[in-house]
Amino acid sequence: MIKRKRMLVTGASGMTASYVPAVFDDFDLILTDRVDSAVRLDICEASSVRDVVAHAKPDVILHLAAATDVDRCELEPEWAHRVNAVGTENLTLACREIDATMIYVSTAAVFPGDKTGPYVESDDTGPLSVYGRSKLDGEHFVRSVLSRYYIVRAGWMIGGGARDKKFVGKMAQFIVDGRTELSAVDDKIGSPTYARDLIVGIKGLLDTDHYGLFHMANDGVASRYDVAVSIAKSLGREDLTINAVSSDAFPLPAPRGRSEAMRNQQLELMGMPSMRPWRDALREYLTEELMPALVAAD
């Protein structure tokens, strides 16, 4: 009988982690979080991290816990550093102690945002925001301490169903509420990433034992305006007026580069299955997951 692998997951009450149990159903999962998971874990507390990891003895640590509110990070840099950099350092050291494999989910915000084409893994980093710098610090620590790791950079996250408080969730809620006119930014671009597809991709990558740095975003590039238009079309609301506006219309504390678009070049070179187009992923998410959740909550 083949022994089931054991995986410890941080940030288990978050949007992305909501897809882990179904995708990793052949693993023994230890779901941890500070809030409502079976195992409480504050990644900022080194002794707690060390004790929990030593007791669980996972084969793999999937590190999803993070400070992802980009604007709060900008206003509270110490908080961002403590969670994204120090928290990752604590997990990395605990991972080394038990000789486990680390999967660290990072972000396209590590780039300066001035490239014409999509960023690939070999491009120079240069984050503009506190959030981007704190996530890049986590990357550097993982790479400097471990030999068996996967650093996976995701793009603009989509997913979570009833937990979705990000752009797609907000736009869909506006439509459910009966709004007839919306505005969305068209001067900044990125690569939408369906969290379920990300988790499926991570599982496939884990099976390769091909360690390193990878981009993992759905295929294609979009502005927030493009995403809003696609939402309306997917929901049969092409009568909805969507105004394309500059990012100046929504001033925010954290700076954003013009582009957070990414290409999954390393996955392509390995011959891994490509991530499906973002419009296809968005349509499935809206019709099969988000809208049923919003209607049920209405």
Describe the protein's architecture and organization:
This protein is an alpha/beta fold. The protein has one domain (6-224, 249-297): NAD(P)-binding Rossmann-like Domain (Rossmann fold), CATH 3.40.50.720. Helices cover 39% and strands 19% of the residues. The protein has helices spanning 20-23, 46-56, 70-75, 77-98, 130-145, 167-176, 195-206, 224-234, 265-269, 278-297, and strands spanning 6-10, 28-33, 39-40, 60-63, 101-107, 149-154, 156-158, 181-185, 189-190, 192-194, 212-215, 222-223, 241-245, 259-260. Strands 3-2-1-4-5-6-11 form a seven-stranded parallel sheet, sandwiched between helices. Helix 6 packs across helix 8 (224-234) and helix 8 (224-234) packs across helix 10. The longest helix is centred in the N-terminal third of the chain and has 22 residues, at 77-98. The protein starts with 5 loop residues before the first strand and ends with a helix. The mean pLDDT is 93.
Keywords:
298 residues, globular, 14 strands, 10 helices, three-stranded mixed beta sheet, alpha/beta, 39% helix, seven-stranded parallel beta sheet, Rossmann fold
Distance between the termini: 48 Å
Largest sheet: 7 strands, parallel
Please compute the radius of gyration using only Cα atoms. Answer: 19 Å
CATH-defined superfamily = NAD(P)-binding Rossmann-like Domain
The percent of residues in helical segments reads 25-40%
Quantity of strands, as a count: 14
